[in-house]
Design goal:
Layout (H helix, E strand, L loop, with lengths): L6 E6 L5 H8 L11 H10 L1 E8 L5 E11 L2 E7 L12 H8 L6 H21 L6 H7 L15 H9 L2 H9 L6 E2 L11 E3 L2 E3 L13 E3 L2 E6 L10 E2 L3 E5 L11 E2 L3 E3 L11 E2 L4 E2 L11 E2 L1
Length: 298
């Protein structure tokens, strides 16, 4: 009965009989790696495994809901049964939170917990007919950063949320622009855009003949062999990696403020008078002090 959340934690010690783990989760459709016998052997040889069981219809604690894998006294894996990606169910978040407090774990698991809680808080707002804020939508669309999940990929509930939304209208609300200024396809780059959702990759020596540069790029900005940098002063924010090779005006990125990923340049000393943040290199400086950056050479 997956509606129940009260349960018990069972620990399977490193070096113990892996078949006990298999017997406990066999035919329970967890999608966990150690459902497979060879993986179960490998896991139990090097790890302790905690599994949280809730009651079945007969009142016995046989329903696996959360698994925590420990190696060398530190959490290395957390899995749930919310979906095939092994994300954590909403009703198991408090249970997991309490258990993690007892175990040695890195901060990334706290981030996963906080992000998953927020996803479900926003989903609950939508289900109750409440108006979602710009911050809510920016988070769900991962505009500033990717959401941290326990599973192998995004939570199915988030994917279902995105599939039923009007993405253009939502991005327009987030960035205070018209839906006509939001693009998703490379052909959209032939128009005037404010927001582009995706990667911009260009091998031409003349960018202006191929695309018009938007202000917000929610992906990588990767251009090479440029000798004409006209229009790049529009660029304000790149969520992913910013990669530029070529010869051009070093002041062409005069309005660029943030890069979420790496900043990778050619030999030129490009000037970034407004650049405040480069995530991939862990730079977080006062924009007034950042006059030029020469980082990884391509």
């Amino acid at each position: 009965d997956l509606s129940k959340k009260d349960g018990v934690w069972v620990k399977y010690n490193q070096g113990s009989d892996y078949k006990k783990v298999l017997d406990a989760i066999n035919n329970k459709f967890t999608s966990w790696f150690f459902e497979d016998e060879s993986f179960a052997k490998d896991y139990i040889n090097v790890s302790d495994i905690f599994i949280y069981f809730t009651e079945d219809y007969s009142g016995k604690f046989t329903m696996p809901r959360v698994a925590i894998v420990i190696e060398q006294d530190k959490v290395v894996e957390v899995r749930g049964i919310a979906d095939d990606n092994q994300n954590i169910e909403f009703q198991m978040l408090e249970v997991l939170d309490s258990k993690l407090k007892e175990l040695n774990h890195s901060v990334k698991y706290d981030l996963m917990l906080d992000d998953t809680k927020r996803v479900y808080e926003i989903l609950n707002k939508e289900n109750n007919g409440q108006l979602l804020t710009k911050d809510d939508l920016s988070f769900m669309y991962e505009c500033d950063r990717n959401i941290n999940f326990f599973g192998k990929d995004k939570d199915y509930e988030l994917l279902k949320f995105l599939s039923r939304r009007d993405a253009k209208a939502d991005y327009a609300l987030i960035y205070n622009c018209s839906p006509d200024l939001v693009g998703f396809d490379s052909s959209d780059l032939e128009k005037d855009l404010y927001v582009y959702v995706g990667d911009i990759k260009n091998n031409s020596s003349n960018l202006s003949f191929c695309l018009k540069c938007p202000s917000i790029v929610l992906g990588d900005f990767n251009v090479s062999c440029l000798d004409n940098f006209e229009g790049l002063e529009n660029l304000l924010f790149v969520k992913g990696n910013f990669i530029v090779n070529g010869m051009g005006d070093v002041s062409c990125f005069s309005n660029l403020e943030e890069v979420g990923g790496k900043l990778v340049l050619s030999d030129l000393k490009f000037v970034f008078p407004r650049l405040k943040f480069v995530g991939g290199k862990r730079y977080n400086k006062d924009g007034e002090k950042v006059k030029q950056l020469v980082l990884d050479k391509v």
